[in-house]
Every structure is written in C-alpha cells, then in structure tokens.
Design a protein that fits this description.
This protein has 131 residues and is of the alpha+beta class. Helices cover 30% and strands 42% of the residues. The chain has a single domain, classed as Roll (Nuclear Transport Factor 2, Chain: A), CATH 3.10.450.50. The chain has four helices and six strands; from the N terminus they run ααββαββββα. β4 and β5 form a beta hairpin.
C-alpha cells in the first residue's frame, strides 16, 4: 500500500477501536497474528484469542477515542504515533500518547506492537503511585 492507503487503513483501524465492536476490530488481524501491548507483554497469538481479549478490553472502555498523529511507512507495514482519549470512571479523561508498529500481510495485521507508558493511566485509576 502507498502512504495514502496506509493512512486510510490506519484511520479505519483506529475507528474500530471505539464503540465496543470487538468482532470488527479483530477482523483487521490475521488468523496467525501476534499482538503485544503493555498489559500483555507476553503477547497474544491468533485472531480468536485476540478477539476474546478485545471483547473484555473494549467492553471496559467503550468511549475511548484514537487519533493518528503521524504515520511512517516501514517495510511490510507502518509505524504510527497517536493520541488516545480515555474516559475514566472518575475525573477528567486521560490523554495518552503512544506508538504502534503494525506489520501487514496484504490487508491483515500479522504483528501489532503497542507502546505507551501505562504509569499515568494506572495512577489515575489508583493502582500505582505516580513516579
């Protein structure tokens, strides 16, 4: 895909993260995908296991929003920096900045490495002291 197609793909993928639609989100991933995020550093393998993870994650966060800031094509996919707005049970929403590496096979994600600092999020939820 060229840059414009990658940007459109990324934006559609980010849209699927909102609104508690785990089946739609999982449809972006290959059957044999690998997904790694700060909450699952050991990774999740396979679309069906990932769909189950997304079902829990999106149900707990139906109002979050993701916005692409910068996308850089890399061999086999793209790196994207983004801003996320995460409503929290109490207080102001959390604004989070992160970066993902996304590797594609055709139009399916085979590797998705998610990178952001969870410390502020966990602090706002009262789970870890801010440090």
């Amino acid at each position: 895909m060229d840059r414009r197609a990658l940007e459109a793909y990324c934006d559609a993928w980010f849209d699927a993260w909102a609104g508690n639609r785990p089946d739609l989100l999982a449809s972006f991933y290959a059957e044999d995908c690998l997904y790694v995020d700060p909450a699952r550093p050991q990774g999740i393998r396979g679309r069906e296991e990932l769909r189950r993870y997304f079902a829990r994650l999106l149900a707990a966060n139906p109002g979050w929003e993701w916005r692409r800031e910068r996308l850089d094509p890399v061999e086999g996919g793209f790196a994207v920096t983004y801003r996320a707005r995460i409503p929290l049970p109490q207080g102001e929403p959390l604004d989070l900045k992160g970066m993902d590496l996304v590797l594609l096979r055709g139009r399916e994600i085979v590797v998705n490495e998610v990178h952001f600092d969870m410390a502020l999020w966990l602090h706002r939820l009262g789970r870890v002291p801010k440090g």
